[in-house]
Amino acid sequence: MSNLEFLNIAECLRLETLPQGIEHLTKLEGYRFQSVSKQFTESIQEGGVDHPMMLLVQERCKKPT
User: Fold this and answer.
1) Tens digit of pLDDT per residue, the chain (65 long)?
2) What is the CB neighbour count within 10 angstroms for residue 19?
């Protein structure tokens, strides 16, 4: 998984938080979240438990490769 370049999470309504270890995906260039639970959406928004990790993911995806 360390070589993963794009993460797509779709139709995953039971997922409530970011997957563990997402911070270790150093080659991640993009992501998409579609049809996810309200809890997941809230967890990655400002004030959510996963917001700091989401900021890291977003910053990593902006880096030129």
Assistant:
1) 779 999 999 999 999 999 999 988 989 999 999 999 999 999 999 999 999 999 999 998 886 55
2) 13
| Residue 34, strand partner residues | 10
Residue 1 lies in a domain: no
Domain that holds residue 20: 6-62
Q: How many domains does the chain have?
A: 1
Neighbours of 11 (CB within 10 A): 8
**Cβ of 25: how many Cβ atoms within 10 Å?**
20
Q: Say what the pTM is.
A: 0.83
Decide: 13 and 36 in contact? Cβ < 8 Å.
Answer: yes
